[in-house]
Amino acid sequence: MVIILCASILQTSTGFGFSIMATPFLLLLYPPKEAIQINLILSLVISLALIVKIRRDIDSSLVKRFVIGSMPGLFVGIVVFTLIDMSFLKVMISLVIILLTILLILKFRIRQSPARDFLAGGLSGVLTTSIGMPGPPLLLYFSGTGTKKEKLRGTTLAFYLFIYLVSLGIQVEVAGTTLTVWKSSLQALPVVAVGLITGQALFSKINQKLFQIVTYVLLLFTGIYLLIESII
């Protein structure tokens, strides 16, 4: 419950972070399949709850490009999930995240383009069905392009509505599901509601600079965690 509360507050106040914070700790409590599916269900609930409130901040054309790019990525990700050694995959992902985050801290910037939008969506799709973390590619991309926090939150949450729903369907179809997944998700809903209210209150108090710092901390945490967890 503590894990879900903190992750819900983070997701609501920033537009990302639920899977980044929740997945590593849920993996300590549940097998990988159950941890990923609980993450997908609760992230979908948060996106549904917020979509009406943040609809004016959504860049619809950008969401469409992310969605189109993610479609092949989702199927690549489930193949990766079933065939490739997870430890090796996590090491590679963690090193890329750490390297790119360091570049962003050193003021490296990316120019946004339709082709890069498609690529970011594709990478997000791969990571969603493989390790349950769609956020890092979008977070790195938005940070590199200097996107404002309102647009980042609105656009990512709108995209998550699609990618979490499709990913959950693919996961259940290919890997199956368990009663524990749905029971644990249902039990967590009151905590998610508290996180939604708290996160909304925090969002208005976070300025762009602090938002950027939080972004870098989360990315470094994700990269370092995946690296340590894969090696040990």
UniProtKB/TrEMBL annotation:
It comes from the Bacteria. This is Sulfite exporter TauE/SafE family protein. It comes from Rossellomorea vietnamensis.
